[in-house]
Amino acid sequence: xxxxxxxxxxxxxxxxxxxxxIEAKLLEKTASNFHIMDEAVQHVIESGGKRIRPILxxxxxxxxxSKLNPQYLPDDVYELAVAVELIHAASLVHDDVVDEACLRRxxxxxxxxxxxxxxxxxxxxxxxxVFSILATRKFNDAAMSIISEAIQAMCEGEIIHAFRKNDxxxxxxxxxxxxxxxxxxxMTASCTIGAHTGTNDQILIDAIxxxxxxxxxxxxxxxxxxxFVANEDVLGKQPFNDFRExxxxxxxxxxxxxxxxxxxxxxxxxxxAEFHTEENIAWISALLSKYNTKxxxxxxxxxxxxxxxxxxxxxxxxxxxxxxxxxxxxxxSRES
Length: 336
Known about the structure:
By secondary structure, the chain is mostly helical. It has helices spanning 8-11, 16-30, 35-45, 52-63, 74-99, 110-114, 116-137, 141-163, 172-198, 202-229, 232-235, 241-244, 250-258, 261-272, 278-290, 293-311, 319-333, and strands spanning 103-104, 107-108.
């Protein structure tokens, strides 16, 4: 997406051993007594993903961690990282049902492979495993509160976005608020929990939280843009998917605000069209080029990424802090 590529593997190299532990725990914690259930759950877990939320939790812990917060043991950090990844995984399974998606990360979605009923129940099952982790480890009120508030916000964001589907007039501010609830709150929770497990210093925790809030917005803007400009093989799903489903996302909102009267009217008609022909999709692609949407969206995303990095100035220099800084650049430069 940008000229300077940042490697995610390079960013997370300092926590690579921790990630191996978390990967094993994801399968361990989701195992059931029923082979047929395990097959579906493993399909979700082994589909992979970047594990950005566990990475952020681990790096935030390290960046704030001169000595582990005495309320937490090292294994507690792993368990919390597993919990946030399972919340994310469950949300994707449910999203695919709502969106009637056939692909997830280049593989058949759970709903495509086993049907909507099984997919909904698998998503619910993953949530129960989160509650089991939290109850078994007897985490303090801070961790429990952060996670429960994130789950509530995600549900609220999904519901409001569903109500606003096919709404061509949704404002940029309203949209960013919705996606902050849908995706940003869990990213923020991951970082904040990581900071909590590393320190009792509220100033440091607040700095990490501010970092995460801005990182989440940058992430979503780029995520929206990738739906229009990324290669299908790299993205793992059909391009223009959100637009086809009647979802107005940041690139279209930006373009709508830049359009002349003629282009805006045609964009609105195309958005409300019952079927999106390849001709329509080609016109939208040309419109995005005409109004320089890709570069403009990346510029906005970079502004939020820079705000995220600025929030970390208060933290002492360390490999983990540097990795968080590079993560902000990666979020903007990624191609999937």
